[in-house]
Amino acid sequence: MPLDRLDRPFMVGLRNKAYATYKRRFANYVVQVLSRACGIGIGLGLLTENPVDHVEKVRKATGETSLNRPCGPRRSATRCLPSYRCRCGARSR
Which SUPFAM superfamilies has this protein been placed in (predicted)? Predict the structure, then answer.
């Protein structure tokens, strides 16, 4: 599809379709990539304005919890690093 035929309602529909199929992260990625492509089209003179500029990203639901959990005390980052000696001979940790 040529860049000059893209408009804001089409972009919103595409974002919503990506959200329904692949969820929030991919839908926001689609918006970012198309915004960058339209920005390049403006630089090349193919577009006069960016139709993705005012398309909002899909926000995280209010009650949605984070999927990542913090590491427990047994798996902290400092315990995973190998110990090494500095130039003065002292060991780290």
Answer: DNA breaking-rejoining enzymes (SSF56349)
Tokens found for residue 38: 């339209």
Q: Which of 54, 93, 61 is nearest to 77 (CA)?
A: 93
Q: What 3 state SS string does the chain have?
A: CCHHHCCHHHHHHHHHHHHHHHCHHHHHHHHHHHHHHHHHHHHCCCCCCCCCCCCCCCCCCCCCCCCCCCCCHHHCHHHHCCCCECCCCCECC
The domains of the chain are located at 3-59
Furthest CA-CA distance within the chain: 67
Q: Model pTM greater than 0.70?
A: no
